[in-house]
Write a structure and sequence with these properties.
- This protein is an alpha/beta fold and 392 residues long.
- α3 links the parallel β1 (75-79) and β2.
- It is globular.
- Helices cover 36% and strands 14% of the residues.
Length: 392
């Protein structure tokens, strides 16, 4: 099936959540989010969340709400990817949740699956709510992440196409793709992935994902540049993709965190960068002038998950429910430029943020949603291929 046609979770045995009627602006996000459902149940065993506390004060509440002082005396930790993104999340829902619930909410980061694994394996889990990737949460459902409690987490304001997930729920939507320095390329900018790999026509450093497990898109971009059509990407021909990367390896620099993406764009270390849309928004807000190439860009998502063995699992579910509220999702979007997952959210985006909004109809009409099922099932193989290439 073409990556341009997001898959419905229902066709893969997922349970679709009940939804209220939706208005048109939410449909763009809903269409994109449908693909998440493909892997929401992948590799997930049965079992419930930890019984850390009496949840009577948390069950059945509308998204975005928590009973006043219901968690007084609870100390918990929220983890995300740092930088402006996490600052925005803290302002949008972490600090307000602490004030309303009475909980003492600490923050940490960046999200690191290796640290989560170490905590779970040592039975010393320090993190309670983690903003992570759907392919990480799906691959480790009921091993590193526990099942969510949907008696506490109200998903009625998520898009119609969002299936119920055992171990995760969408937290935000973002774009991932090619961004270029408009000051350098002027009236002759790159317009395709092929241009990213053409260092003669478009000289300059390129910055890409240097982590062992890269964001989906790293192989896809190379294959698209090499002439593979969007509907023919999977299964990924990693050898062909890496041969394409070989051609520009001497022109590459690497980022390993979202904050480094922003730093590279701001400092001029690279003239083109494969980056997350919100990180380019941060860079541009601080003086950079990078613009997106939406042609065959990628639409992706983060998710909330709760590490298995969290000492505050019920409180964690309460924080997730609070973060999914209309006001909280609106604020998160306004602070970070990442698109909301609550269908009632109507963020007042700045002109700069609007330019980087991945849920614009004109963007979704030409973007690709990676096959997260494939990535979830082949994560180790893909990680090994990319890491071996980085180390060559």
């Amino acid at each position: 099936m073409s990556p341009r046609s997001p898959l419905s979770g229902a066709s893969h045995g997922t349970q679709t959540l009940p939804r209220a009627r939706r208005q048109r602006p939410a449909m763009m996000a809903g269409t994109a989010l449908a693909t998440v459902g493909v892997l929401l149940t992948a590799g997930c065993a049965q079992g419930g969340p930890g019984e850390d506390a009496d949840s009577a004060d948390l069950v059945g509440r509308p998204a975005g709400t928590v009973k006043k002082d219901a968690l007084d005396g609870v100390r918990m930790t929220f983890v995300s990817y740092g930088g402006g993104m996490q600052d925005g999340q803290e302002g949008a829902f972490v600090k307000p949740f602490a004030k309303d619930s009475g909980a003492d909410v600490l923050t940490d980061g960046p999200t690191d699956p290796a640290k989560i694994k170490a905590q779970v394996n040592s039975k010393n889990v320090l993190w309670d709510v983690v903003d992570t990737t759907p392919w990480d949460a799906a691959a480790n459902c009921e091993t590193l992440y526990q099942k969510l409690d949907y008696k506490i987490i109200n998903t009625s304001q998520l898009p119609d196409q969002t299936p119920e997930s055992p171990c995760m729920v969408p937290s935000l939507i973002y774009g991932y793709g090619l961004y270029y320095n408009a000051d350098k390329y002027g009236d002759n900018p790159p317009t395709t992935w092929a241009d990213f790999y053409d260092t003669e026509k478009f000289p300059g450093k390129r910055a890409v994902d240097g982590r062992p497990t890269p964001t989906p898109g790293i192989f896809e971009a190379a294959l698209l540049a090499d002439g593979v059509g969007p509907s023919k990407l999977y299964p990924l021909d990693t050898k062909r993709a890496l041969r394409k990367w070989d051609g520009i390896k001497s022109d590459l620099t690497y980022w390993k965190t979202g904050a480094q993406q922003t730093q590279i764009a701001q400092s001029g270390q690279a003239d083109m960068i494969m980056a997350w849309s919100g990180r380019i928004y941060e860079a541009n807000a601080n003086g950079a002038n990078f613009r997106p190439v939406w042609n065959n860009s990628f639409t992706l998502y983060d998710v909330f998950a709760v590490p298995k063995g969290s000492k505050n699992a019920k409180a964690a579910m309460g924080l997730i429910n609070y973060a999914l509220g209309e006001e909280q999702q609106t604020r998160q979007s306004e602070y970070t430029s990442y698109a909301p997952v609550n269908v009632n959210s109507r963020p007042a985006l700045s002109p700069q943020a609007k330019k980087l909004d991945p849920t614009q109809e004109k963007v979704l009409n030409q973007s690709i949603t990676p096959d997260f099922t494939y990535w979830g099932q082949n994560r180790d193989k893909l990680s090994t291929a990319w890491t071996d290439w980085l180390n060559r």
